[in-house]
Amino acid sequence: MSQALIEQVEEHRKDIKHEVLTYALSELVNMYTADPPEMNIQPEWQRLFRWSREQQSSFIESLILEVPIPPLFFFEADNGQWELLDGLQRMSTILKFMGVTKDVPIEHQGDANNDHEWHYDTQNDVDQPLQLTAPEYLTSLDGLTFARLPVPLKLNLKRSRIQIYVLKRETHRMYKYEVFKRLNTGGSDLEEQELRNCAVRILDNQFPDFLREIAKDAAFASCISVSEEDRRQGYADELALRFFTMKNYGSNFRHDVGPLLTKFMEAVALKKVAFDYTKESDLFRRTFGVIARAFGDGTAFRGRRRDGAVAGSLSPTLFELVALAVAGSIDVAESRSPEDLRSELIAFADSARSEALTGSGSNSKKKTFGRLEKAKTWKPGDVA
C-alpha cells in the first residue's frame, strides 16, 4: 500500500512543472501593457471581475500596509504568454488603480445594487482609474486615485512585490484545469455552474459554448422562468446541463448531483463520452417547445397543492422527471394537444410526488434512479 502510494505521487508529480517568482507591481503592469502583451488576465475560461469598490479599496490598503496577500497563479501558454489561473480580482484592481483602464474585464452593464457596486454605467467611467472609498484603517485614502497619492506611497506601491506561481507549458492541461478548479472552489461569489463554465474551457470550449447558447432557447427560457440574476450566475446553463447529464450520464449518479454535472462536462470536453451536438440540440429544442406549449405560464416544473394551485419555485427534480419523460416520447408528445399533454403531465408529476420521487429529500441515489426509471416508462396518454 505504501509503495503504491509513493509510486502514484511520483507519477503525477512528474507531470506538474512550476516555478515560484516574485514580481514588483510595476513589472506586472508592464507585462500587461507590453506590445504584444506578455500577460493575459482574461482568457476565455476566466470568470469576470466583480469586486465592489469597497473590496478593491481594502485590497489597495493591504498593499500599502504591506499585509501579506495570496500569490497569483499563471499558466505559461505555448506562445510564452502568461494566462491568469487565479487572482483576477486582485490583478484587475492593481491595474485599475494604477491607471491601466484598457481591456480590464468588467462583469456586466446594468444598474448597481448599491453605491459601491462595480457597474460602470451608473457610477464608474470605464476609462477612469479607480477612486478609492475609505477602507478600515487608512480612512484618508477616501476619494484618492493612484495619481493623487503622496509620492513616497506611490513609489512604495509600485515596488511592492507579489509572489507568483507559474505552471510551465509542459504541464498537462488536465493539471492546469485541476489547479484552476481547486483554487476557485469555495469562493463566496462564484456559483457552481459559473465555475464549471470557466474551468471546463481549459479543456475545451465547445461544450460550454453549446450550453450557453442552448440555454437562451426561447421555449426553454419560458419553461424555467428564472430571474435575470439567476440566469447571469449560470442557473439556466446548469438546468440545461442537468437535462443532458441525467439523460446521457444519469446511471453514474452516486451521492450528489453537483459532482455528476461536473464529471459529465469534463467527460464531454475530453471526448470520453459521445455527444452528438446536432441531435442533442434538436431533441432539447423539441422537448421544451412541447412543454412550453402545454405550460404557457411557466409552471411545468413547479409543485402544486392538493387544490391544483401552483406552489413554490422551480423544482430541479420535477424538472428532471418531466423533461426526460417528454424527451423519451417526443414524437408522440408532439402529436398531443397542449391541453391534453398538460393534464397528463400534471397527473404524472402528482404520481411521482406520491412516490416521493420529487420534492424535498428526493436526491438520494435510490430516489434519483427511481425518478429516471419512471421518466422512461411514461407515454403520452398515460396519467401515471
What characteristics describe this protein?
about 10% strand, single chain, 2 domains, alpha/beta, about 50% helix, two-stranded antiparallel ribbon, about 375 residues, 5-stranded mixed sheet
Walk me through this protein's architecture:
The protein is of the alpha/beta class and 384 residues long. It has 2 domains: 2-182, no CATH class; 192-377, no CATH class. It is 50% helix and 9% strand. It contains 18 helices and 7 strands. A 5-stranded mixed beta sheet has the order 1-5-3-4-2. The chain has a two-stranded antiparallel sheet with strand order 6-7. A hairpin with a 5-residue loop joins strand 6 (302-304) and strand 7. Helix 12 packs across helix 15 and helix 14 (277-294) crosses helix 15 (316-328). The longest helix is centred in the last third of the chain and has 18 residues, at 277-294. The chain is elongated and about 80 Å long. Mean pLDDT is 85; it is low at 107-125.
